[in-house]
Design goal:
Radius of gyration: 12 Å
Number of strands: 5
Number of helices: 4
CATH class: Alpha Beta
Largest sheet: 5 strands, mixed
Strand content: 25-35%
Order of helices and strands: EHEHEHEEH
CATH architecture: 3-Layer(aba) Sandwich
CATH topology: Glutaredoxin
Shape: globular
Distance between the termini: 15 Å
Strand order of the largest sheet: 1-3-2-4-5
Helix content: 25-40%
Length: about 100
């Protein structure tokens, strides 16, 4: 299961999912974001049954990034039933991300 592209228009409906949703706020010019992308694809492949992973380009979708106060990228925000439950800023190796998300994986 691949990561899902998310936009300002569909963001609200995406985070209302039955399962937890991890949104990656990123941009094409961001080096750490490019390093994180394959890690998130792996997590999506391995844990897609328990967790939805979406990616929101902050340059193309500035409203949502502003709404959630995203100042640095990559920023990962975990939502449960539409509510923020965790926020991680900066690149994380896979084992660290798995540990941070252990309660939902």
């Amino acid at each position: 299961m691949a990561t899902q592209t998310v936009t300002d228009n569909d963001f609200a409906s995406v985070i209302q999912s039955e399962k937890p949703v991890l949104i990656d706020f990123w941009a094409t010019w961001c080096g750490p974001c490019k390093m994180l992308a394959p890690v998130l694809e792996e997590l999506s492949d391995e844990h897609g049954d328990k967790l939805t992973i979406g990616r929101l380009d902050v340059d193309e979708n500035p409203a949502t990034a502003q709404q959630y106060g995203v100042m640095s990228i990559p920023t990962l925000i975990l939502f449960k039933s539409g509510k923020v439950v965790k926020q991680l800023v900066g690149y994380r190796p896979k084992n660290d991300l798995v540990a941070q998300l252990a309660d939902v994986l």
